[in-house]
Design goal:
Length: 401
């Protein structure tokens, strides 16, 4: 997808958060801003919609290093990396997460971050209802030049990119003296490609090259993909997560389907009295019932199962937003049937009495038919951006009663 939501988290929940919705196709900013702290991160959930979420984290929390490995390193060699780096690190390796980058010759690139810090970042996203498949240090998203270093200011911190796997993020109080010291060690002036207004250096041995002074997060959005690296690997690899509302709706839909099957079975048995067919369908119903409700140990015949399903549906309807979910989906049945629009992801907001879903359709006209049919049923519809996918289109729809 050409549009992405890029979020730069802080080291802790009280730190400000930068964000941007960026279009790769148009090479332009759709929206951007700064949040005071992680408690406001949930306001980006609607902006995320069906856009991929890319997470940048402070480079000061990630140690970029490398180890010498054989050309054909096996799993045992990779598993030994923490012990090879143990003497270089101040923390106990049991408290650290080691993420593998690319391999240049015999040099295996490694990013090291505390497990506690990874959990803080992931909890920030999870608490806000956001899911991200890409996470990398912000300093690795700074543009890389063949000659010289790149310098960019983000909030109160500066990002410096020296090489493919050599980058820093920190405060000017120690980062600028480090650059001046680096310049003194070179015969030629140190070239700095500045993507922010250049700071004042005391050394005349530093030559600042002014690059386009775009918004800092725009620069990072344009270049983060140049580095093929992701912190979300191994035990932190993103897994598909379904919201509680979606799981509840799916269970209700599953139970409704089983109830219909049980009802059909009852009618077939009244007409046919074929023992073999009865036994086959009865077995199928029991299997589906156990799959939907694995904790229910009392399973009877088709009629008893139908009663149990009705009782379970009543329990769901009395559990907060369940009644609204089922009622709205039931009333939207004709709209789905007439338009052939198919919901892919559903979220229900009980407080706002609205149903937000990502839906696919054959074309834009099908989405319009759904919208008109839903309006005739008494709902108001708010439609988000429409994107082409495979042989159809996909869009975000907000349905309010």
């Amino acid at each position: 997808m050409s549009e992405k939501l890029i979020i730069r988290l802080g080291s802790h929940v009280q730190e400000s958060i930068f964000w941007i919705v960026w279009s790769d196709a148009q090479q332009e900013i759709i929206a951007s801003g700064e949040l005071p702290d992680a408690s406001a991160l949930a306001t980006l959930a609607e902006r995320a919609g069906n856009r991929p979420v890319v997470t940048l984290v402070p480079g000061r929390d990630v140690t970029l290093t490398s180890v010498d490995l054989p050309a054909r390193a096996n799993r045992k060699a990779l598993a030994a990396i923490p012990f090879m780096l143990e003497d270089e690190l101040s923390d106990d390796i049991d408290h650290l997460f080691f993420a593998l980058g690319s391999k240049q010759g015999n040099q295996q690139q490694v990013a090291v971050v505390r497990h506690q810090q990874m959990q803080i970042w992931l909890e920030m996203l999870s608490d806000a209802g956001l899911s991200s498949h890409t996470m990398l240090p912000d300093c690795l998203a700074v543009p890389l030049h063949d000659e010289g270093l790149s310098l960019l200011q983000l909030g109160e911190h500066w990002l410096v990119r020296q090489d493919h796997w050599l980058a820093h993020e920190g405060e000017a109080s120690w980062l600028m003296p480090m650059l001046e010291l680096l310049a003194k060690r070179q015969e030629q002036p140190l070239q700095l490609h500045c993507y922010s207004p250049a700071p004042q250096f005391t050394s005349s041995h530093i030559h600042c090259i002014t690059e386009p002074l775009d918004a800092p997060l725009q620069v990072l959005a344009q270049h983060y993909a140049d580095t093929q690296f992701n912190l979300l690997q191994g035990e932190y690899k993103t897994k598909p997560v379904q919201s509680g509302n979606w799981r509840k709706w799916r269970l209700a839909a599953s139970l409704t389907g089983i109830a219909l099957l049980a009802s059909l079975t009852d009618k077939v048995l009244q007409i046919t009295a074929l023992d073999n067919e009865q036994q086959t369908i009865q077995t199928q119903i029991v299997a589906e019932f156990k799959k939907a409700l694995p904790n229910n140990t009392r399973v009877g015949d088709a009629r008893q199962i139908r009663s149990q399903i009705k009782a379970e549906l009543n329990r769901l309807q009395q559990g907060g937003s369940g009644v609204s979910v089922l009622a709205m989906l039931n009333q939207l049945g004709d709209a789905f049937a007439q338009s052939q629009v198919k919901p892919q992801l559903i979220r229900f907001d009980a407080d706002r009495a609205e149903l937000r879903m990502q839906a696919s359709a054959a074309d834009i006209a099908a989405l319009e038919r759904f919208k008109q049919a839903a309006q005739r049923a008494g709902f108001s519809i708010e439609q988000g951006a429409i994107n082409n996918r495979d042989n159809g289109v996909i869009s975000t729809l907000t349905v309010r009663s």
